[in-house]
Amino acid sequence: MRMAANQYLTTANPGDADAPVSPILSIDRGSTDQFEQTIEAHAHPEPKLIWSVSATATVTAAARHWLIPPGYGLWIPGGVEHGGAVLRAGEGSAVAFSPDHCPITWPRPTGVAVGPLLRQLIAHLHRVSHHDPSRPHAEALMFALLVPLPTHDIHVTMPTDPRARAIAERLVADPADERELAAWADHVHSSVRTLARLFTMETGLSFARWRTRVRIRTAVQLLADGASVTTTARAVGYRKPSAFISAFSRVTGHTPGTYLHTD
């Protein structure tokens, strides 16, 4: 992501003995609609945290497809090849860390939630210089708040076949779309049987179960942003709150109330 970068040259230039060494190499922030919507597969030696402020993106890394909605991010270790695509334009950010000074050593791509405090800390670190006396404390708190999420909180497997992928991307952008597989088959000029087979083969789930997971993934963020259970249920395609609560509990193991915004 080639966004406006705040570079911390002290980390890259250890010859400056008077300056503290920051574990952060750079913080990039900007709007995804300014750049290409598809990022080719690549790797870099430094670990990175990419997270969404208001965009929705997918990232393919370590043979898995990750959905990154607003308020969530993905930790990518150094040397891990990854690529992705922007499904909905918006604001995003990427933080690059020094391989030699970063205290996080997760060996695999890892999903994280970026709550209000963590978001403000990253914004603060983007603004201040590497000489600012608040940096060491802010950096320490930032790392303390980077906690791995359970898989279901961030991971939605995206099919790769163009027909199934087109349907998946539409549903990620609008989880409330109520079209069943027969209607989607007409939309992508395929058969119901073929699409059902593709979803099972490429996501490990039936179409209905895959769509439920996408809906619940979106619901988690809506609840965290302050939406009521009833409003959230309707926003992700459930006419009855009771049906939504049942589906939510099956997917997450918790009731929607667990994720309600409480600030």
From TrEMBL:
<dbReference type="InterPro" id="IPR009057">
    <property type="entry name" value="Homeodomain-like_sf"/>
</dbReference>
<dbReference type="InterPro" id="IPR037923">
    <property type="entry name" value="HTH-like"/>
</dbReference>
<protein>
    <submittedName>
        <fullName>AraC family transcriptional regulator</fullName>
    </submittedName>
</protein>
<keyword id="KW-0805">Transcription regulation</keyword>
<keyword id="KW-0804">Transcription</keyword>
<feature type="domain" description="HTH araC/xylS-type">
    <location>
        <begin position="165"/>
        <end position="262"/>
    </location>
</feature>
<keyword id="KW-0238">DNA-binding</keyword>
<dbReference type="InterPro" id="IPR018062">
    <property type="entry name" value="HTH_AraC-typ_CS"/>
</dbReference>
<dbReference type="InterPro" id="IPR018060">
    <property type="entry name" value="HTH_AraC"/>
</dbReference>
<dbReference type="Pfam" id="PF12833">
    <property type="entry name" value="HTH_18"/>
</dbReference>
